[in-house]
Amino acid sequence: MKKISLLIMLCFLTINLYAQKPFYQGKVTEVRHGGAYTYLHVKEENKKSFWVVVSHENVKEGDVIRFQKQLIAKDFNSKALNRKFNEIMFADNLQYKVRK
Prior knowledge:
Layout (H helix, E strand, L loop, with lengths): L1 H19 L2 E12 L2 E7 L5 E7 L8 E15 L4 E14 L4
Parallel strand pairs: 3-5
Antiparallel strand pairs: 1-2, 1-4, 2-3, 4-5
């Protein structure tokens, strides 16, 4: 009985965590792979664009994706890409080929 209660509580907490974070959505305009990560330049419908980094994914330019923000890093230096980003969003729960 304890195991079932613990499992139910864990499921509730997981669902609650995802429900509290909003999804961002946009079209991928550039893709770069570096190490175990994929860097995506995303443009939202309101024309705002920004860089997002996720665990390695097979996303292509033109894909419409959605994801949840984990944190924003300023002046982030990617050793794998040998590039500095003024601002980049680390994200998870990536879903791509989402219909608008």
